[in-house]
């Protein structure tokens, strides 16, 4: 406790509170609440039953109503906290309800039936998780299909990105050839052309190739990332050419030089690009929304948007599916965050 | 456990290694036939092929496309209409009033986007700057705090939109908090003003960590001895900020602003999920206009969408050129990014 207080009250320099110390702590604690709060609220809500989601005021934790099996009754009975007429508080189980009067029994002593006005009772609840929010979408919706599509798109796109970008980066960093600066310029130029600018013609290209309503139509336009080529090229430039020349002396082919020497040495940059590519492709929304119109081909993001756009939004499922969609990115965040922050700080990649 | 992992690794790597070995022989033949120039072509080919088909070709076609009419998808089936779409988009008697324009939706989108860009980039830069300054202090567990602000950056726009839709709905968390504080509940997402404010706020929430990170890297590159010298001279902290921090951070700050501008102009995903462009057209932005005119609406007009996207692209090209110029100047000085 003392340690925590000491930690919380640590000040600049050590003597006296400076106003900037207060600003710092307000900002950091406020940031913690605002940045993590919404996601935690989502996760908490995703375990609530539909009835509980409709409650106002909302509870922080998910609850389920308690039930008890009582001797003489086949089904488990719902428990209530009841205030009796003499002011006594007891926990009773409901047998049946007629209008505003409920017939209830004490689970310990099921012989005596007590009649209670329903205004004098509240459901007995305990913290519990409505896990059916998670299992139902997997069983009864196409959610599993969406998940599979998303995984396929993400893995394939990342794999192709790594191979094609690293090959191009190798050529651009290790060879002198005519038109090299033209190629560099072309790649540089496309930094200015985000997908949203070429939506219409790209759609017609995809359709002409028969890739409309195909996961490959989602994958291919995204893989030739200029940022990836640049990142890898910058890294490969630091690999000394002498290494390559030595390998050539030993009769290594150019392909072997790329595959056995340059690629392993570029591993750190490849790892950064792979992480980014996974996050990019997992999160892609607009392009899959355009290319995929058949429901069974939807990726998670498109499927989620469709469910959330329905007239009668089933929030308990939506919230659970949103949490599932978030999981891979959260895992990346937890385990690989330092690669990402290093990548951004180093090259402004996003 | 270790050997199992190694075995799995070896099993996964084996076909890749075999494939790499297999194509080595034909490649050697190709190499001896064409020399290193041919090898450069070989290494560039896959990337440039994909790049040409899916980026360059559409880019060129986009210009032609924007000058054709009708609803046909393929270019040869589309009649040439010249500059008709551009005339339609740019035909306004009063550019400040979308109702006076031939294509009022486009100008509403332009106006909304402009307002969004100014507000979002302005506020976000300030928030990112404060965050970076605070993270640059002598904090314990700095990487934890950095991660706190960075967390939403990785979330998908759809997830971001849904998280906030859930919080901002009528019986949502925010209204509950207002109610606890004694305020009146607000219908955040169906009120024109609040929906727009939510679009700005949510997009700041989702992206500010990214820019704070770039600024933090810039702050950490400022030599410590400058601050030590200032401290020895007894310079006030405010003066230190204006005279040392800000001038030395200026290149990073400019890059951040331009990057943020480029992304804000294209805003779509999270706002689309959050508000769907509504209520009415109050959060209709350019990319959504292009998407709806090109793909979604009943009165599909791909040519018009192409023309609008070219106009948006022109803005982006200018911004990107500024950014490239800035980062080249930065790296030329050997500092910053």
TrEMBL record, chain A:
- InterPro entries according to UniProt: MetI-like, MetI-like_sf
Q: Which GO terms describe its cellular component?
A: plasma membrane
* Cellular location(s): Cell membrane
Membrane topology designation:
Multi-pass membrane protein
Name of a matching Pfam family: BPD_transp_1
Report the main location listed first in the record. Answer: membrane
Q: Which GO terms describe its biological process?
A: transmembrane transport
Which keywords describe this protein according to UniProt? Cell membrane, Membrane, Transmembrane, Transmembrane helix, Transport
Where would I find the ABC transmembrane type-1 domain in this sequence? Answer: 147-336
* Transmembrane segments annotated in the record for this chain: 21-43, 151-170, 182-203, 215-236, 257-280, 315-336
Which PANTHER family does the record associate with it? ABC TRANSPORTER PERMEASE PROTEIN MG189-RELATED (PTHR43744:SF12), ABC TRANSPORTER PERMEASE PROTEIN MG189-RELATED-RELATED (PTHR43744)
The family classification in the record reads: Belongs to the binding-protein-dependent transport system permease family.
Recorded protein name is Carbohydrate ABC transporter permease
| Taxonomic source organism | Stappia albiluteola
TrEMBL record, chain B:
Q: What SUPFAM superfamilies does this protein map onto?
A: MetI-like
Which residues are in the ABC transmembrane type-1 domain?
110-323
Question: Which UniProt keywords are listed?
Answer: Cell membrane, Membrane, Transmembrane, Transmembrane helix, Transport
Keyword Transmembrane tagged: yes
Q: What is its main location?
A: membrane
Extract the InterPro entries matched here: ABC_transporter_permease (IPR051393), MetI-like (IPR000515), MetI-like_sf (IPR035906)
Q: Which family does it belong to?
A: Belongs to the binding-protein-dependent transport system permease family.
Q: What is this protein called?
A: Sugar ABC transporter permease
Lineage in the entry? Answer: Bacteria, Pseudomonadati, Pseudomonadota, Alphaproteobacteria, Hyphomicrobiales
